[in-house]
């Protein structure tokens, strides 16, 4: 599975952005997908995840109520809608996929994900 993120950019605080992650291959619909972010000098942190079916999503407390993950399995794409952005949301955002198929496990750690995109920069100005 190859992943390519897009949609990052510069936005003012309070604004919105939608990130996309396009996946190659024919197994996208079988994988749990996640979004992570990494700010300069900090460890990569979990943002949110969505099960292969799209029926369940889960989020870090820091973004709950502001960010929404969705997926379109017909388009092999997962999205991260980010609203009410704050300067502390500034980071490189990565999408990732769990290798196992049809998993219903909540996965929030980097080591649980097997495939990663190259990242897209999101900068929120105050």
The gist of it:
0% of the residues lie in helices and 45% in strands. It is mainly β.
Q: Could you list the spans in which at least 5 consecutive residues all have pLDDT below 50?
A: none
| Shape assignment | globular
Given helix and strand content, the structural type is mainly beta
Beginning-to-end CA distance, first to last residue: 37 Å
Number of strands: 11
Mean pLDDT: 97
Element order, helices and strands? EEEEEEEEEEE
Rg (C-alpha, Å): 13 Å
Tell me the helix content.
Answer: under 10%
Helical run tally: 0
**Sheet of most strands:** 7 strands, mixed
Main traits of this protein?
about 45% strand, 4-stranded antiparallel β-sheet, 11 strands, about 130 residues
Topology of helices and strands:
Elements: E1 3-6, E2 9-12, E3 17-23, E4 33-38, E5 45-50, E6 57-59, E7 67-72, E8 77-82, E9 91-97, E10 115-116, E11 120-125
Parallel strand pairs: 2-11
Antiparallel strand pairs: 1-3, 3-8, 4-5, 4-9, 5-6, 7-8, 9-10, 9-11
Describe the structure.
- This protein is mostly beta strands.
- It has no helices and 11 strands.
- It starts with a strand and ends with a strand.
